[in-house]
Amino acid sequence: MEDNRIAQDVHEGGGALQQDTIGNTLALAQNAPLPTTHPMASLLDSQYDYKTAQHGDILQGVIMQITPTEILVDVGSKSEGIISGRELERMDPELRRSLRIGQQVLAYVIRPEDQDGNIVLSLTRAQMEADWRRAEELYAAEEIFEAQVAGHNKGGLIVRIGRVRGFVPSSQLVSVRRRRGDSAEEEEAEDNELAKLVGKTLRFKIIELDRRRNRLILSERAAAREWRREQKEKLLNELQENEVRTGVVSSLCDFGAFVDLGGADGLIHLSELSWGRVTHPREVLKVGEEVQVYILHIDRERRRIALSLKRLQPEPWSQIDQRFTIGQMVEGTITKITNFGAFARLEGDVEGLIHISELSDERISHPREVVQEGQTLALRVIRIDSARKRIGLSLRRVNDEEIGDYTWEPEDDITDDAAYEDSAPAPEQEQ
């Protein structure tokens, strides 16, 4: 009896299903909607749930057909998208040759529907729109980016972000030396410098964007300033005191030399350029020179880096007793003249003092009566005090035939120590 009941249920259910199918077929034929609760209704809804395209939309599609007069693109809509012959004529030849059936592309909706019901699309406008959107993102994020210089004119450089044309005024460039005059020669020189940048990749930052006016202004100067700030932060976190780095001399000033360590400048103070006396950094370094430097101190709070050149060289006074002996003849160059004598630089950046009493057998009122700065002379070593870093030299005893005890005392109340203290380098100045 149970088997008979199951068979009856199956028969009745099959009849109901058959009846529903016939009813649904009639409903479709009469364009009547199916009940929303019916499984076939949800299937049809999902199958024909197309998004309606709007003007200005950028759709992703797949190229279905390419002919000489048009390209058909499936953009997931009821009707196919068409790239017309007029669009193809204006399209970049290289882009047109690169298109293939099955290729995924971005397409800009020019018209949601033409007279044949197709969506009119543009690949060029899609690329332009995508590039403008990228430019807007870069502008909003104040991001630094790299781009190739496409051309130049009288006022600056032309740089493209994709197909969007940007302009870099000469005032916003750091790769070109700015000229204050407006003569024909200066204009020609600037134009030549701009021409040399075409094809090169530089860093830029967008400083003005106005799509309505088709205006996109870029700045290399702002990018360089921001990039150096970021690099300095990075370097300040990475650098460690007492390590050695390679850098490039970026500028010289009276109190020292600035060295670019790769985005951030450190200062070699005048007193850290050499173990010997240096009156100006140009005596030791030149702009653009690559040098190894010692990281002396890092002030992360004030964002300053103190460097040293001399700490990478042996301290000359540590070997002074092996290099010089009492009575030895040496060659020295006069570096500084004071009231009480003259300082002379010997080999290895060691300086000794020629006291005024050792300049001449005759009594003189000032050392300038006998020597001048920059003059190179033969001198005799008469005193060595390595512990106090002192060497006493004599000009008047150069021709002595016998070498005796050259320990001496100044004839006036100015001591040797006072002379050296007076000649010490000036205190360190701030960066």
The average pLDDT value, as a whole number, equals: 81
Number of domains: 5
Which fold name fills CATH's third level, the topology of the largest domain?
A: OB fold (Dihydrolipoamide Acetyltransferase, E2P)
Enumerate the spans where pLDDT stays under 50 for 5 or more consecutive residues: 1-34, 36-48, 409-416, 422-431
The class by helix and strand makeup works out as alpha+beta
CATH architecture of the largest domain: Beta Barrel
Return the string of H and E elements: HHEEEHHEEHEEEHEEHEEEEEHEEEEEH
Radius of gyration: 42 Å
Strand order, biggest sheet? 1-2-3-5-4
Proportion of strand residues: 25-35%
What is the CATH H-level superfamily of the largest domain?
Nucleic acid-binding proteins
* C-alpha geometry: rod-shaped
What's the end-to-end separation, in Å? 105 Å
Biggest sheet architecture: 5 strands, mixed, barrel
Helical coverage, percent range: 25-40%
| CATH class descriptor of the largest domain | Mainly Beta
Give structural notes:
This protein has a five-stranded mixed barrel. It has 431 residues and is α+β, with helices and mostly antiparallel strands. The chain is 26% helix and 32% strand. The chain has helices spanning 2-29, 39-47, 85-90, 93-98, 123-141, 184-197, 220-238, 320-323, 416-422, and strands at residues 58-66, 71-74, 81-83, 104-111, 119-122, 145-153, 156-161, 164-169, 201-210, 215-219, 244-253, 256-260, 265-269, 290-299, 304-308, 329-338, 341-346, 350-355, 376-385, 390-394. The chain is rod-shaped and about 120 Å long. Mean pLDDT is 81; it is low at 1-34, 36-48, 409-416 and 422-431. It is built from nine helices and 20 strands. It folds into five domains: 2-47, no CATH class; 58-128, Beta Barrel (OB fold (Dihydrolipoamide Acetyltransferase, E2P)); 142-225, Nucleic acid-binding proteins (OB fold (Dihydrolipoamide Acetyltransferase, E2P), Beta Barrel), CATH 2.40.50.140; 240-312, Nucleic acid-binding proteins (OB fold (Dihydrolipoamide Acetyltransferase, E2P)); 316-422, OB fold (Dihydrolipoamide Acetyltransferase, E2P) (Beta Barrel).
